[in-house]
């Protein structure tokens, strides 16, 4: 302990204070993007397009693209999977998917929420883009083999995921589903 009675190890340096303040500002703007899903995804598509154009024009960094593809496939599986897997048979405190027609309806809760899916995907594209500026990551590979292997992996993984969705009768998307609203305030009351 120092003379002021505080722990001397807890004193933040000016660099740590500035880093913390920068992180708070970053988190503030990240939080402000939460309700704007369409704009977030458009921004991610722009970042992905820039990354793809860079890899195409450089004609290299295919191993980075392959690693990015595997990571994105992993994120997609988490996004399409329920929080509690009915196959695991584990007891859960939270809601689970109905497995029989007589079961009570429970909403689909993703293992990887949409915001975290978007954020992880965008970070992955940014990191992969930055890696294209360092020649150490440009490992020479025969890219058609990597592409074929990734396509086979994608097809097999998605086939298994779709079979799981059919078996347990869940759809991880909300478009086309009936939406229920609250009471309408413009309705008239018969007295």
From TrEMBL:
InterPro entries xrefs: Rer1 (IPR004932)
One example of a Gene Ontology biological process annotation: protein retention in ER lumen
Compartments in which it is found: Membrane
Keyword Membrane: yes
Keyword Transmembrane helix assigned: yes
Segments passing through the bilayer: 39-57, 63-84, 141-158
Keyword tags: Membrane, Transmembrane, Transmembrane helix
Top-level lineage group: Eukaryota
Membrane topology: Multi-pass membrane protein
Listed GO CC annotations: endoplasmic reticulum; Golgi membrane
Role description: Involved in the retrieval of endoplasmic reticulum membrane proteins from the early Golgi compartment.
UniProt record similarity statement: Belongs to the RER1 family.
Name of the protein in question: Protein RER1
The species this protein was found in: Arabidopsis suecica (Swedish thale-cress)
């Amino acid at each position: 302990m120092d003379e002021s009675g505080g722990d001397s190890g807890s004193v933040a340096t000016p660099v740590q204070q500035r880093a913390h303040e920068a992180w708070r500002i970053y988190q503030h703007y990240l939080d402000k993007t939460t309700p704007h899903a369409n704009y977030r995804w458009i921004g991610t598509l722009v970042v992905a397009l820039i990354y793809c154009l860079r890899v195409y024009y450089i004609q290299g960094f295919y191993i980075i693209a392959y690693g990015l593809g595997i990571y994105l496939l992993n994120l997609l599986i988490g996004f399409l999977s329920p929080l509690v897997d009915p196959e695991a048979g584990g007891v859960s405190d939270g809601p689970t998917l109905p497995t029989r027609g007589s079961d009570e309806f429970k909403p689909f809760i993703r293992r990887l929420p949409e915001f975290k899916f978007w954020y992880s995907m965008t970070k992955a594209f940014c990191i992969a883009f930055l890696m294209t500026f360092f020649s150490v990551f440009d490992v020479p590979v025969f890219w058609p083999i990597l592409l074929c292997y990734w396509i086979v992996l994608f097809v097999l993984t998605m086939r298994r995921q779709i079979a799981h969705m059919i078996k347990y009768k869940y759809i991880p998307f909300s478009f086309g589903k009936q939406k229920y609203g609250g009471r309408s305030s413009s309705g008239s009351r018969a007295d």
